[in-house]
Specification:
The protein has 6 helices and 7 strands. It is of the alpha+beta class. It has 3 domains: 7-34, no CATH class; 38-165, Electron Transport, Fmn-binding Protein, Chain A (Pnp Oxidase, Chain A, Roll), CATH 2.30.110; 174-206. Strands 2-1-5-6-7-4-3 form a 7-stranded antiparallel β-sheet. The longest helix is centred in the C-terminal third of the chain and has 28 residues, at 176-203. The radius of gyration is 23 Å and the shape is extended.
Length: 206
C-alpha cells in the first residue's frame, strides 16, 4: 500500500526530523504533518501577497547539490499566478551568468522566498521550476507594462508546498515610493490644516 507523505516532507527530511526530535520541536511538527503538512495550492490570500511583492529570491542547485540564490525584482505584479499550482514571470536580461538557468536544466527542484518588509511577513514556496525559451508571445504577455527591462525567457514554477513564517527578526522597511507617497499626503494634510487655520483667523472679531 502506498503511503502519502505530508507535503512538509519537501523540507523535513529524516535528518531534519532527527534534529527536531533532539531539540524538542518534533512533536509539534508531527501534529502538523498528521493533518497533511503545509498548503499545496495557491490560495487567494497567497495570490494577493504575491501580487503585492516587488522582489523575491530564487533558490536552485546544480546536479551535485551546489546551492545558488538569485534575486529577482520588478514592479508589483511581475509574478503572475497562472492557476492554483503555477507561478510564472519573465526572466529579465542580466549579467549573463545564467547560473539559475543552468541549474534548472539539470535539477528542477527550486524554492521561492518572498519577504514583505513593510508588514514583516515572509513566505517560502517549494516546487519545481523550468525556463522556457523561444516563446516570445509568452514573454511579452508576462512582461510588466512600461518597465525598463528586456525579457529573455519565462520561468514557470510548479508549487509543491508553501509555508508562512512569523515576523520575528524581520526588520521593518518601506519602499521609497511608499515613503514619498506618505510624505506627500502629509504635506497635503498640513497645507489643508494651515488653510483652515487662516480661514478661521479671518473670522475672529477684530
Amino acid at each position: 500500500m502506498t503511503t502519502t507523505l505530508p507535503s512538509s516532507d519537501v523540507a523535513f527530511s529524516p535528518s531534519v526530523k532527527a534534529v527536531q526530535a533532539r531539540l524538542g520541536s518534533r512533536k509539534g511538527y508531527a501534529g502538523m504533518e498528521s493533518r497533511g503538512g503545509w498548503a499545496t495550492t495557491i490560495t487567494p490570500e497567497l495570490a494577493a501577497f504575491i501580487a503585492d511583492q516587488r522582489s523575491l529570491f530564487l533558490a536552485t542547485a546544480s546536479a551535485d547539490g551546489q546551492a545558488y540564490i538569485q534575486h529577482r525584482g520588478g514592479p508589483r505584479g511581475f509574478v503572475h499566478v497562472l492557476d492554483e499550482h503555477t507561478l510564472a514571470f519573465a526572466d529579465f536580461a542580466g549579467n549573463r551568468q545564467y547560473i539559475s538557468t543552468g541549474n534548472l536544466s539539470e535539477n528542477p527542484k527550486a524554492q521561492l522566498f518572498l519577504i514583505d518588509y513593510r508588514n514583516r511577513r515572509r513566505i517560502k514556496i517549494w516546487g519545481r521550476a523550468r525556463m522556457v525559451e523561444g516563446d516570445d508571445a509568452q514573454v511579452a504577455k508576462l512582461m510588466p507594462a512600461d518597465y525598463a527591462a528586456r525579457g529573455e525567457r519565462v520561468l514557470l514554477f510548479s508549487v509543491s508546498a508553501w509555508d508562512s513564517n512569523c515576523p520575528q527578526h524581520i526588520p521593518q522597511r518601506f519602499d521609497a515610493e511608499d515613503v514619498v507617497a506618505t510624505l506627500a499626503e502629509r504635506e497635503r494634510r498640513i497645507a489643508a490644516l494651515e488653510d483652515e487655520i487662516a480661514r478661521l483667523r479671518l473670522q475672529l472679531p477684530a
